[in-house]
Amino acid sequence: MRIGILTSGGDAPGLNAVIRGAVLRGSVVDGHEFVGFRDGWRGLVEGDAMPLARTQVRGIARDGGTILGSSRVSPYREGAGPEVVRAVLAAHGVDAVIAVGGEGTLAAARRLVDEGIPIVGVPKTIDNDLDGTDVTFGFDTAVQIATDAMDRLRTTGDSHGRCMVAEVMGRHVGWIALHSGIAAGAHAILVPERRTTIEQIAAWVTSARERGRAPLVVVAEGFLLDQADDPHSERGLDAFGRPRLGGIGERIAPRIEAATGIETRAATLGHVQRGGVPTAFDRVLATRLGQAASDMVGRAEWGRMASLRGTEITSVPFAAALDALKTVPEHRYDEAAALFG
Amino acid sequence: MRIGILTSGGDAPGLNAVIRGAVLRGSVVDGHEFVGFRDGWRGLVEGDAMPLARTQVRGIARDGGTILGSSRVSPYREGAGPEVVRAVLAAHGVDAVIAVGGEGTLAAARRLVDEGIPIVGVPKTIDNDLDGTDVTFGFDTAVQIATDAMDRLRTTGDSHGRCMVAEVMGRHVGWIALHSGIAAGAHAILVPERRTTIEQIAAWVTSARERGRAPLVVVAEGFLLDQADDPHSERGLDAFGRPRLGGIGERIAPRIEAATGIETRAATLGHVQRGGVPTAFDRVLATRLGQAASDMVGRAEWGRMASLRGTEITSVPFAAALDALKTVPEHRYDEAAALFG
Amino acid sequence: MRIGILTSGGDAPGLNAVIRGAVLRGSVVDGHEFVGFRDGWRGLVEGDAMPLARTQVRGIARDGGTILGSSRVSPYREGAGPEVVRAVLAAHGVDAVIAVGGEGTLAAARRLVDEGIPIVGVPKTIDNDLDGTDVTFGFDTAVQIATDAMDRLRTTGDSHGRCMVAEVMGRHVGWIALHSGIAAGAHAILVPERRTTIEQIAAWVTSARERGRAPLVVVAEGFLLDQADDPHSERGLDAFGRPRLGGIGERIAPRIEAATGIETRAATLGHVQRGGVPTAFDRVLATRLGQAASDMVGRAEWGRMASLRGTEITSVPFAAALDALKTVPEHRYDEAAALFG
Amino acid sequence: MRIGILTSGGDAPGLNAVIRGAVLRGSVVDGHEFVGFRDGWRGLVEGDAMPLARTQVRGIARDGGTILGSSRVSPYREGAGPEVVRAVLAAHGVDAVIAVGGEGTLAAARRLVDEGIPIVGVPKTIDNDLDGTDVTFGFDTAVQIATDAMDRLRTTGDSHGRCMVAEVMGRHVGWIALHSGIAAGAHAILVPERRTTIEQIAAWVTSARERGRAPLVVVAEGFLLDQADDPHSERGLDAFGRPRLGGIGERIAPRIEAATGIETRAATLGHVQRGGVPTAFDRVLATRLGQAASDMVGRAEWGRMASLRGTEITSVPFAAALDALKTVPEHRYDEAAALFG
């Protein structure tokens, strides 16, 4: 068979390992051929493809980013759609597609599968908010980077007796905040799933200070203050319709300082969390997912995505990932809060 | 309740996070008190204990090693045994014990539980060879360190056109070799579970060279050459009964060179793999296991150990870990071999 | 002799190594005693001191921050001054002071020396803007952190075909931007010493793109656009007199995007650059400076600071550091610009 | 002009940055053309060359190794020599050569220059044993890797109350041992420049233990025990003329254990020290040296090598590097010994 691969949506450490895993598994073992579509669905709807032989993927498992490029283009954008996709696949002699991407990518893939296009998926989100798999690749790297950064921030907090606020990724879910906060020993973990008042945050910060610590607060970018406490806590847009400069971390730091009297500084970790060399964990996971996706093509498992369950890779229908956002469950948050509350 | 903790056996990154997790969970939430027994079972049989209040465990989740010390002393050594243990616990007013350790530790704990001593366990092995849990803490850190080292060795191999052999930990199982080998893109992964001939290894190495690569071989310390190929491949002892200087890596490197004509160098990663700052993954896992162990004491789950299953912490009887060594299954090895074979 | 040590001003990786170096050198070799004043000059004017025996400094060379704490308090603040300092030193039996700090600290120390207080200095600034020494400790760590971050940002830029802007520390000088920019292979390096127009920046960015690269721009926080190009480029204050949220990186990113048509994202590295485990280079440099400072006390070199010249530690008068800011010289900037211009 | 570059001798982090620095400086600014000779002098005497345009060197500053390959071939080997070199240069239209290498490379280059071949040099040795420059690139990376490894070994030593011995690179000089030992806080630093008895080492180890520390010993691979103490301390060869398996670290560990009664383990860091991503310091230094070498060609500075003096790059005659090995001076060793002695 001739298999097309595309990587779509935001960057995530491990994309190249997925590509390499699929190509090595499929070409060496099963004799498939591979092509890569450039920049996600854009390459597929425009017929922009590159060969993906064994030599193209050598040594890339440790490289961040994706050799195929990525974009947020939809296969259903103006002038595209299933007929265009079908025509491009035919023109390139491609029998099936492995789509690596997040919620939007998998939702588009599901529609295309419903139209008869043979696609299997590999879930991708550094936020870890996709259901249907224990964990997604890229998440472990993001948590490690955030943890390393907090390890550094903590020493400066200690030197100055300051409270440090670290804003990490996570628009809708708090997984990165939760895990990096546990790992770094944060004194408050603020996640989108749990609205919290400034009073509660100040109580945690003050309690840490009273135990002799320089308070460390980790906040997911999508965290919202309790509405009663802050009617204006929604993320604002500036006059040009762009997100307001300064995220939630920079906005709550002065409020924590005001409420506690403790000098408080914020750091926004930003894009650094989604690039660069993947952790060994993510390289292994991504490689295995890529291998599994190639096998799934061989078994014609259209409309399903590779998934980690315990220690094994299996597959689940796209719907398993798309039905619900995987949020931090209450017991996990409370378990973490027991460390600082 | 008053709970004693001990850490026993070889060092593993995450031991301190287990201790901190148990103490914070148990003391802050449930009002337990904690004491630490120094150097594993030695401290318990000799009554060598230290207080473990919240202040003792602050900030230690990121520190490698164990603040309690460790040793390989058995509670059944000459002059010890269940009566001694019972007496020490009574003397220190300790109601139950959390024992953090590997196969030997858990086997001893099982005997003590059978004698009526209230013990719960936390599994520990960087080799990941304990059954009954998806993964053990310390393993992720060891894999990361081995992967980083191989990333470095690879560039030198490339510069000189050499074959590099990296010997990693794993006396009885090849998990570290398998995962670090996948992550680093090794061209041969040699594990204790799979005897291999020099001819096969040379074929992999030559094949990598023919594809233009500097061959990278990862070998677990417990790997054995196929017996037909090497009747003397057992690990030897020197005249003083010590393990022979030079491990399997250094012993197979000249044989690979002889068989392939490619200059070959070995590096033994050694003790570096089991010390130092744990990865974020291991800090989170170890913290959660420590918390769970404290909860298990509250529920009087004697004779059980905390265990990771998928994304949740549960508990299993000691027997689940002790009945069989968790070896690399055939399908996992073959899956990895598809990347280089 | 009995020697007091204080660390003053912003946090810098290596402060603890200075303390350890001074204490070990002075106590073990020369039989001095040491005390630490807490939080910089505050501890000295308030008589807040802690013992600094060998046991207090063990193992701290690798720890970021300062075990003595730091602050920006001046010894000439209301109610302080040379008489107060003299009295505190007498009360604690302290014969001389080692002051570790930046420009403000050394300037205050110079005034106190002029009043007859026996002080030697150790220069500290992660910005590397102090003259009189080849380099200051903390700078190497800051450059490494910034470089690592840019290595990560680059892969995301590549995946999305974006221009990434990294804002690094450096209010008055561009040393961190210069060195991290060279190390990371930036396509534009923007420093306070060299006003640049948006047109020039856009030309560099466009040129990189035309060579097939995802443009990477590093900008020091104190960089100013060419005035003709931007009459409002001074750092603004918000209504509360705080620095405006959003630094120069976030402010020029949309202008680069507008001028080039290339999607552009900014990341502000912030406080992460000044905390955490120091590089080996900084640990060695800081240790040697601390040792030298102890020796300088033995030789009564009041009013002088330890200084690195080539491979040797020497001492220079405070004035050598204070007379002029050490800016990036033209030939160094032009040399770096040759890499991207 | 058309300039040839070659990299010769052992691998060192920063080789690619030298190549990139030379090519970017020479081609973009001065309009030179570049070719690379493969595998050091081998490529030059065999006429094995590759083009080195801007596109070949992009993004390589952060990559370990050398894109040109390296070898230990001499230009004076059988069948080579100045006439062959001259003929190859003429055949490839190469006007001058930049030779990047250590003592052997520079000595060969000096002979060729004496024969009229236009060559400039860039000094390379991770051991830092070349005179004529403050420091060589690759050394900082090697020290950082060794320090990181010792940070890890230390925690395991602490957990088990063991003495850990780390063997680092340095056949003839102890610079890596000295700097990594200072940075990691070693309790004994053993260098080739200073023969030491087992009794002295045991005294240091015992003293550290008595202060409550797990002793950490760093030993350069070329260290020799005091002869009176060990008549057999020369590095032995096995029956095949290979270096004996097991270096000095593994050989002194049991002797330390015997002399102190403290369980002692050795780790040999090996090739990991000379590969992989260079530190930011080495990338900057190597880039500047490469740029300077290109400029030196423009000024026809044959027989000279680029050199770091303080903060500036200058050039010195090859003889400055070749007249004497740069050993650790007594005052530097004694200064370090003051930290543990």
Tally of DSSP helical segments of chain A: 11
Strand order of the largest sheet of chain A: 3-2-1-4-5
Total of domains of chain A: 2
CATH topology assignment of the largest domain in chain A: Rossmann fold
Question: What are the low-pLDDT stretches of chain A, counting only 5+ consecutive residues below 50?
Answer: 231-243
Distance between the termini of chain A: 56 Å
Shape of chain A: elongated
What structural category do the secondary elements of chain A indicate? alpha/beta
Helix content of chain A: 25-40%
CATH class of the largest domain in chain A: Alpha Beta
Total count of strands of chain A: 11
Strand percentage of chain A lies at 15-25%
Instruction: Give the SSE order of chain A as H and E letters.
Output: EHEHEHEHEHEHEHEHEHEEHH
Largest sheet of chain A: 5 strands, mixed
Radius of gyration of chain A: 22 Å
Mean pLDDT of chain A: 93
**Greatest interface by residues involved:** C-D, 47 and 47 residues
CATH architecture of the largest domain in chain A: 3-Layer(aba) Sandwich
